[in-house]
Write a structure and sequence with these properties.
- This protein has 596 residues and is an all-alpha fold.
- The protein folds into four domains: 196 residues, no CATH class; 72 residues, no CATH class; 95 residues; 88 residues.
- It contains 25 helices and no strands.
- Helix 10 runs antiparallel to helix 13 and helix 16 packs antiparallel against helix 20.
- It is elongated, with a radius of gyration of 45 Å.
- Keywords: Membrane, Mitochondrion, Transmembrane, Transmembrane helix.
Length: 596
C-alpha cells in the first residue's frame, strides 16, 4: 500500500528528471528543487518536513501548462513531501488501532460476565462517590451564598433521588427525561454505561478506519501528466481528513460525508506547501490530541482504577501476612531448606549421575558395565571343574574312556563329566559303604561344582543380554527426571510469560478473534463487491493488530506470516472474494502448523 505509492512516485521521478533540461544560469531555483528531490531519497521525519519546505520558495501561481520550465520538478518536490505526510498520518492512524481493539475486547469481556460488571462497579466506585460529593459541596455552597437560603431549600436540592444516578452514571443524562427518572436497577445502569462506552469507542474506531480506508483507496500517482492534480488531491484529502478527525463521530454521521474525489483545482504550489507544513506541524498533532481526549472517555479504566481493590486488600491483609510469616519463620526456613536440598539431591542423583553413566556406557567404560556376577567368577569355577574331573579320572582310570587329559578338559568345559557320572552310578549301589570310603561324596561334590558352573553360565547369558541393552536402561533411568524437568520448565515459562518463540494460548485466542472480525466484515459486505472506505479501513487496522501478534509466531514462520498479512492488505483493494481466499489460507496453513 505505502510501498506501492512510493514505487509509483519513483517511476514518475525518473521520467521527470530524465526529461528535465534546465540551464543553471536561467533557473537556479529549479536546480535547488532538483537537489531537494534527491534529499527525499532518504525520507525525512514528519517533524522535520516543515524545515525542508521552508527552505525553498514555491510558485504562488498555478501552472496552466504542465510543460512550464521546472514546473514538474516543483510538483515532484511537493509529491515527495506529500508522501511523507501521508505515511506519517497513516502510521499515526495505525498506532491507534491496537489500543482501540484492546479496549473493545475489554468491554466485550465485561459485558459477557455479570461478575465482571460487579468488579467494574467496584473499581469505579471511588470516582463516582467523589463526583457526587463534589456536586453536593458545590450545591451547598451555592445555596448558602443565596439570599433566600434556608435549610429546607438545601434539603430539597440534595434530596432528589435521581441526583446520584445522574452524577454517578453520566450516560443517563443523555437519555430522555422519562427514562432518566425511571427506576433502573444498579446492574442495569452499569451495563448501560459499559454499552455506551463500547458504542462510543466503536464510533471513534469507525471514524479512524474510514480515514485509513480512504487514504488506502484514493492515494495514487498515475503518471507525470497527472502528478499536479494527484498531489493537490492527496494534500486536500489529508487536510480534510485531519479536520474530520477533530470532530465528534456522532456529528460526522449526521453531516455530509467527505467527497474523496473533490480536489482544489486552483491550489498553487505555495498553497500546497503551506497545507503540508500545517499538517506536519499542527493539524495531525491536533487530531492526535482530540483522539486521546475522546478515547480517554470511552477507553477501559486506568491501571490504578482497575487494581486499587487489590492494593487495598494487600494493605489491610499485609499485617496478617507478616504476622503469619514471623510466627512461622523457623518452619518456613526449614521448608525452604528442605526444598532446596530435595531439588539438589534430585538434580544430582536423578539427572547428573544417570547422564554420567550413559556417557560412560557410550565410551565403554568398564566401571559402568551392568553385571549380575563377578567378571572372573565363571572362568575360575570352570577351571576348578576341569581340574576336579581330570584328577578324578587319574585316580579312577577304570571309569575314564580315555587317558588323554586334554580331551577330558575339553569335555568338562563343554559340560561332559561322564567319568564322574559312571562312578556315581556304581557308588550309589552301595551308598553307605562308598560314603564311608569317600568315593560317593567326591562324585557328589564334583556334580555340585558342575551345577554351580551351569548356573553361572545361565547368569552369564543374562549378563550379556543386560550389557547389550545397557544404553537403553540408562535412558530409561534418566527419562522420568527429564520429563519432570521439561514439565516444570514449561510451567515456569507459561507462568512468567517467557515463551518468546511460541504463540501463547492468549495470543492464539486474540489472533483468532481478529481473524473472525475480518471475516465478519467480509461476510456482511455485498457478495463480490468492493469494500467501502470504512470496511477496508477496519480490515487494515485489524491487520496491524495481527502484525503486533506476529512477534509471538515462531521465527521460522514469522516471515511467511507477515507476507500473508501483506497479501491481505493488497487484496483489500480488490473484491471481497480475494480477501476471503487469503484469510482461508491463513486459517488452513497456520492451523495445520498448530500456530492457531
Amino acid at each position: 500500500m505505502r510501498n506501492t505509492l512510493t514505487a509509483d512516485l519513483d517511476r514518475i521521478q525518473q521520467e521527470i528528471l530524465d526529461s528535465a533540461s534546465i540551464d543553471a544560469s536561467d533557473h537556479p531555483q529549479q536546480l535547488s528543487l532538483q537537489g531537494a528531490v534527491r534529499a527525499f531519497d532518504t525520507p525525512p521525519k514528519l517533524r522535520n518536513l516543515a524545515k525542508i519546505l521552508e527552505k525553498h520558495e514555491f510558485s504562488d501561481v498555478l501552472h496552466t501548462e504542465q510543460q512550464a520550465p521546472g514546473a514538474a520538478v516543483e510538483w515532484l518536490v511537493l509529491a515527495r513531501a506529500t508522501v511523507v505526510v501521508y505515511e506519517g498520518f497513516l502510521e499515526e492512524l495505525f498506532q491507534r488501532a491496537l489500543p482501540l481493539s484492546e479496549d473493545n475486547i475489554y468491554w466485550d469481556q465485561v459485558l459477557r460476565h455479570r461478575g465482571w460488571l460487579g468488579l467494574y462497579l467496584l473499581q469505579t466506585l471511588p470516582q463516582r462517590l467523589w463526583a457526587f460529593s463534589r456536586l453536593l459541596a458545590t450545591q451547598a455552597k451555592q445555596q448558602i451564598d443565596a439570599t433566600d437560603f434556608t435549610l429546607g431549600t438545601l434539603r430539597n436540592s440534595v434530596s432528589d433521588r435521581t441526583l446520584f444516578r445522574r452524577i454517578a452514571f453520566p450516560h443517563i443524562q443523555g437519555q430522555k427525561a422519562a427514562m432518566a427518572n425511571k427506576f433502573i436497577s444498579l446492574d442495569t445502569m452499569v451495563k448501560q454505561e459499559v454499552m455506551a462506552k463500547r458504542k462510543g469507542l466503536r464510533g471513534l474506531q469507525g471514524v479512524q478506519a474510514r480515514a485509513v480506508g480512504m487514504l488506502a483507496t484514493e492515494a495514487k500517482f498515475e503518471n507525470a501528466d497527472t502528478l499536479q492534480q494527484d498531489v493537490i488531491g492527496l494534500a486536500s484529502m489529508l487536510e480534510s481528513l485531519s479536520d474530520e478527525l477533530c470532530s465528534d463521530p456522532e456529528d460526522l454521521e449526521k453531516s455530509e460525508i467527505l467527497d474523496a474525489t473533490a480536489v482544489h483545482a486552483s491550489a498553487s504550489p505555495a498553497g500546497v506547501a503551506q497545507t503540508l507544513i500545517a499538517l506536519s506541524t499542527d493539524k495531525i498533532a491536533d487530531s492526535r490530541a482530540f483522539y486521546r481526549a475522546s478515547a480517554s472517555i470511552h477507553s477501559k479504566p486506568s491501571v490504578l482504577t482497575r487494581y486499587w481493590p487489590v492494593g487495598v486488600g494487600l494493605y489491610f491483609s499485609g499485617s496478617t501476612i507478616l504476622k503469619f510469616i514471623s510466627n512461622r519463620q523457623q518452619a518456613i526456613e526449614e521448608w525452604i531448606r528442605e526444598t532446596l536440598e530435595t531439588a539438589k539431591s534430585f538434580w544430582q542423583n536423578w539427572v547428573i549421575e544417570p547422564i554420567s553413566k550413559i556417557i560412560a556406557t557410550i565410551r565403554h567404560d568398564e566401571g559402568s558395565e551392568v553385571a549380575l556376577m563377578s567378571r572372573r567368577s565363571l572362568a575360575a569355577d570352570m577351571d576348578s571343574l576341569e581340574r576336579m574331573v581330570v584328577d578324578f579320572a587319574v585316580d579312577n582310570p577304570e571309569f575314564a574312556s580315555t587317558t588323554d587329559l586334554d580331551a577330558l578338559k575339553s569335555a568338562a568345559r563343554e559340560g561332559d563329566v561322564t567319568p564322574v557320572l559312571i562312578a556315581y552310578e556304581k557308588n550309589i549301589k552301595s551308598p553307605l559303604k562308598n560314603a564311608v570310603t569317600g568315593s560317593l561324596i567326591r562324585s557328589l561334590l564334583i556334580q555340585v561344582q558342575k551345577t554351580k558352573v551351569d548356573v553361572e553360565v545361565a547368569i552369564n547369558g543374562i549378563d550379556k543380554l543386560l550389557k547389550s541393552q545397557e544404553l537403553v536402561f540408562g535412558f530409561l533411568g534418566v527419562s522420568p527426571a527429564l520429563v519432570l524437568l521439561w514439565a516444570g520448565g514449561s510451567w515456569c515459562r507459561r507462568t512468567l510469560g517467557l515463551k518468546k518463540h511460541k504463540m501463547g494460548s492468549t495470543s492464539k485466542i486474540e489472533t483468532v478473534k481478529v481473524l473472525r472480525t475480518i471475516e465478519r466484515l467480509l461476510t456482511t459486505q455485498r457478495e463480490g463487491g468492493k469494500l467501502s472506505y470504512k470496511r477496508r479501513g477496519l480490515i487494515l487496522c485489524e491487520v496491524q493488530v495481527l502484525r503486533k501478534y506476529a512477534k509471538r509466531v515462531p521465527s521460522s514462520l514469522r516471515h511467511e506470516f507477515l507476507q500473508d498479512l501483506s497479501d491481505v492488505e493488497e487484496a483489500t483493494a480488490l473484491k471481497t472474494d480475494a480477501v476471503r481466499q487469503v484469510i482461508a489460507r491463513i486459517y488452513r496453513v497456520y492451523t495445520t502448523a498448530h500456530i492457531l
